[in-house]
């Protein structure tokens, strides 16, 4: 399946990028790099893509498994190398599930399926980063 993205320079350090969903996003450098901070930073956007990809998998599995989850979030901590080209060499993803009737083993299975089978962005990250995944359950 071919995907086409167009990213257009808007002047200075700002760009607008198309998306197959029809929702465009802005990319900009921070003031420390001559930008105005009016958009996503490219490397941080990669981490959001990782969380979004796995999050969509888990949300779909929660629905399919008919699990009761009040809320969940994914927090990512990443280490950026010092040398150019700078890239993430270590990434920790923490899934946090909230609710009064959490089925921990089934939720863990949903996370594992995303991590091991479904999330293509996760597979891409595995090519260059040491990836660690943690799961936390917060019962209300």
From TrEMBL:
Pfam families: OsmC (PF02566). SUPFAM superfamilies: OsmC-like. InterPro entries: KH_dom-like_a/b, OsmC/Ohr_fam, OsmC/Ohrsf. This is OsmC-like protein. It comes from Yeosuana aromativorans.
């Amino acid at each position: 399946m071919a995907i086409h993205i167009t990213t257009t320079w808007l002047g200075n350090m700002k760009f607008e990028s198309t998306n197959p969903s029809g929702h465009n996003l802005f990319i900009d450098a921070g003031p420390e790099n001559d930008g105005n901070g009016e958009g996503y930073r490219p490397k941080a956007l990669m981490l959001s893509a990782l969380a979004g990809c796995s999050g969509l998998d888990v949300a779909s599995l929660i629905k399919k498994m008919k699990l009761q989850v009040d809320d969940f979030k994914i927090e990512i901590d990443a280490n950026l190398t010092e040398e150019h080209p700078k890239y993430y060499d270590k990434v920790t993803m923490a899934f946090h599930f909230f609710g009064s009737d959490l089925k921990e083993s089934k939720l863990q299975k949903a996370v594992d399926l995303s991590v091991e089978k479904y999330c293509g962005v996760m597979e891409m990250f595995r090519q260059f980063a040491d990836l660690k995944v943690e799961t936390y359950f917060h019962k209300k």
